[in-house]
Amino acid sequence: MATPPVPGPGMPGAFTGPQGQAGREVNTASLCRIGQETVQDIVSRTMEIFQLLRNMQLPNGVSYHTATHQDRQGKLQEHLRQLSVLFRKLRLVYDKCNENCAGLDPIAMEKLKQKNQQLKQIMDQLRNLIWDINAMMAMRN
Fold it and tell me: Which of 13, 58, 92, 112 could form a disulfide with 5 if both were Cys (CB 3.0 to 4.6 A apart)?
C-alpha cells in the first residue's frame, strides 16, 4: 500500500473523494478504478469537443455572429484545458500503478487457470451438496 500521488500544479483535486484524504493509503485496485473513471471522463470530454466543433461555423466568408463564435471558442478552449488536466491525472495514476506493481512477480497463466479450475470444482461440490440437502429436506416433509 502506498499513498496517492499529490496533485501537481494546475491539477486541483486530482484525487478527490475518500481516496484524496491526506495520509490515507490507496491500493492499486482503487487507483485502477480512478484511472477507469478518468478515461471515461476523457472520452466524454472528447465527445463534447467534437460536438462543439461540429456546431461551429468555419469563417469561410459567410457572415456570422462574432459573440456566438467567441462564446463557442471559449467553451472549446475550456474543454481542451479540462481534457489536458484529465490526461495529466491519468498519467499520475498510470505512474503510481506502475510504481506499485514494479516489485510484483507476474503470475503464470497456467497457475491462474489451475486456481480457477479448483475454485470451479469447489463451487460445483457446494452446489451439489446444497442440492442434496434441499432434496432430503423436501423428502422429510
Answer: 92
Q: In angstroms, rounded to a whole number, what is the distance separating the alpha carbons of residues 53 and 76? A: 8
Distance CA 94, CA 33 (A): 11
DSSP β-bridge partners for residue 26: 2
pLDDT digits (tens, 9 = 90+) for 98-135: 888 887 777 777 888 899 999 999 999 999 999 999 99
In a 10 Å sphere around its CB, with 0-12 CB exposed, 13-18 middle and 19+ buried, how is residue 48 labelled?
Answer: middle
| Burial (CB count within 10 angstroms: exposed 0-12, middle 13-18, buried 19+), residue 35 | middle
**Which H or E run contains 115?**
helix 109-140
In terms of Cα–Cα distance, which of 18, 21, 16, 25 is closest to 86?
A: 16
At 132, phi and psi to the nearest 5?
-65, -40
User: How many Cα neighbours within 13 Å face the side chain of 18?
Assistant: 4
Is 122 buried (19+), middle (13-18) or exposed (0-12) by CB count in 10 A?
exposed
Rg (CA), the chain: 26
